[in-house]
Design brief:
Elements lengths: L8 H9 L4 H8 L3 H11 L10 H13 L4
Length: 70
């Protein structure tokens, strides 16, 4: 019953457009890097390299998500 997991394209592309790096998308969707890579290949999206300025965006995302304003 080894069914390959299918990710929600809209959700992934939205994260991608917000410039989330790959490993964060993996973490948020609770999936593996290879699964994500497979989907990117399938949809013809080029995975972007890790970016440093992401850190701020990520922390802002989690603040909104958790409703905290630390």
């Amino acid at each position: 019953m080894n069914k390959k997991r299918v990710l929600d394209k809209k959700q992934v592309t939205r994260m991608y457009e917000k410039h989330f790096p790959m490993y964060i998308i993996c973490r948020l969707l609770n999936t593996s890097y290879s699964t994500l890579k497979r989907h990117f290949d399938m949809w013809g999206i080029k995975p972007r390299p890790k970016q440093q300025e992401m850190q701020k965006t990520i922390s802002n995302y989690f603040k909104r998500k958790n409703g905290s304003n630390r």
